[in-house]
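re: ur question from yesterday

yeah so i grabbed the chain u mentioned. its 87 aa long if i counted rite. heres the sequnce exactly as i have it in my notes:
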Amino acid sequence: MLADPARPHKDAAFSLVTRGPQRFGRTVTTTRWRFTQWSDGATALYDLDADPEQTCNASADEASAPVAAELRQKPASLPPWPAPAGK
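ran it thru and got these structure tokens back, copy pasting raw so excuse formatting
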């Protein structure tokens, strides 16, 4: 991508973070947005253009609701966490 930004690539990056043995978060990051869905149901949404330091959680902002809804669907293609026993 660095050598040829016009080359086809994925539209998002995914990450998983754990907070102790029971809490985890799945994050989707696009060129503009970072969305995290926590295992306890909490969410976080940051506009990386307007808030590069990620200090203002926009997940409760009605104007950001369509973005949150779209990004919430992306982790559905990932394997389950925690992984089923024996895998």
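noticed a couple things. The beta strands are 13-19, 23-29, 33-38, 43-47. also The mean pLDDT is 87.
anyway ttyl
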